[in-house]
Amino acid sequence: MCKEDIAQVTEIDREAFPTLWAPANYQHELQNRLAHYIVAYNEEKTVDEPNTEAVPEKHRSGLLSKVRQLFNHNRFFAPEVPPSGKQYIIGFAGFWIMAGEAHIINIAVREVYRLQGVGELLFISIIDMATELHAQLMTLEVRASNTAAQSLYYKYGFARVGLRRGYYSDVKEDATLMSAENITSASFQARLQQLKQAHSRKWGITLY
């Protein structure tokens, strides 16, 4: 993520989490050495041509192939500005890392691009990024009622380790605390590779 992305990332944050606390100060996050963010964008659109309807089936492969290309080249793993500065961002993810622990802050995708594998692709990518940064443990909070998200996290080896009472301020909902240990281990990485391949087969793309 770079400074030119902040307005769009904040917009996606507000769309995905409208009833929660104010969006993070992403300008500050870019200067935070503990924070690491990535974005995915649609190469066929620009910020001057906002998306107004669901992505047609025939365009999904091209969209996700571009996400793959970005992650292959680590374009948003470093604070460099994209060539045009006008990419239409469709989702983002971020985490903080300290003392070998990576804590996922958020994963968000524009509504019209959901259920197309983008969120899972972002999730895979931040696991990879945390591994490259030598994290051993990953943690996250998820709404206790969000069983769909929890199922995804369970699939990737996360386990329920606690509960944060009244964590979500909008309706005082509890948060389920989940974590994955030893993410650099051979067994975790082998399963991750299998899940990457399964994701690739489902959405018609190859991550690496």
Arithmetic mean pLDDT: 81
What is the 3D shape? globular
CATH architecture of the domain at 3-131: 3-Layer(aba) Sandwich
Task: Report the β-strand fraction as a percent range.
Answer: 25-35%
**Radius of gyration (Å):** 16 Å
| Total DSSP helices | 6
Oligomerization category of the chains in this entry? single chain
Largest sheet: 6 strands, mixed
The percent of residues in helical segments reads 25-40%
Q: List low-confidence stretches.
A: 50-54, 58-82
- The N- to C-terminal Cα distance equals 20 Å
CATH uppermost class of the domain at 3-131: Alpha Beta
Task: List SSEs in N-to-C order.
Answer: HHEHEEHEHEEH
| Overall strand count | 6
Strand arrangement, major sheet: 1-2-3-4-6-5
CATH topology of the domain at 3-131: Aminopeptidase
Global structural class: alpha+beta
Molecular structure report:
A 6-stranded mixed β-sheet has the order 1-2-3-4-6-5. The chain has a domain at 3-131: Aminopeptidase, CATH 3.40.630. It has helices at 6-16, 26-30, 57-72, 118-132, 147-155, 186-203, and strands at residues 35-46, 87-98, 101-109, 137-143, 159-168, 173-181. By secondary structure, the chain is α+β, with helices and mostly antiparallel strands. Helix 4 links the parallel strand 3 and strand 4 (137-143). Residues 50-54 and 58-82 have low confidence and may be disordered. The protein has 6 helices and 6 strands.
